[in-house]
Amino acid sequence: MAITQLTKTEFSEKIANLDSAISEWHYVGSRPAIVDFYATWCGPCRTLAPILEELSEEYAGEVDIYKVDIDREQELAAAFGVRSVPTLLFIPARGMPQMATGALPKETLREAIGELLLKLPAAES
Length: 125
Prior knowledge:
- This protein is of the alpha/beta class.
- 33% of the residues lie in helices and 18% in strands.
- The protein has helices spanning 8-14, 43-58, 74-79, 106-117; strands at 4-5, 33-38, 64-69, 87-91, 98-101.
- It has a five-stranded mixed sheet.
- The longest helix is centred in the middle third of the chain and has 16 residues, at 43-58.
- It is globular and about 35 Å long.
- 26% of the residues are buried.
C-alpha cells in the first residue's frame, strides 16, 4: 500500500475535520493511521521516508500512512503545532492521537504501531 500525500481538504475527508476544534477530535478513518508532517528540504525526513514506505507495505490493510508537506499545507501544520520535522501523528481507530518528533528508527516505529495503534502487548509488536 502506497503512502498518500494529503492536502487540507483530503485531510478533512480521510482523517478529521479541522473546522471544529482539535479538542473535539473525531477520526473519520476506518483503520488506525500515521500522518508524517515533513518538508522536502529536511534531511531526517528523507531518512524516514523509505522506512515509512516499508512500514506501509508491512502493515497494509491494518494501518494507513499519510504524508503532509508542511510548506504546502501550513494551516495543517499550525493546527497540530508542528514546529520541527519530521513530526508523526499516531491516530488510533478510537481515542486521541499522539505525536512524536524526529526520525525514529524502524523498530521504534513498529513498537509504536503495535502499542498505540494496534494495541498489541509489547512482545507481539
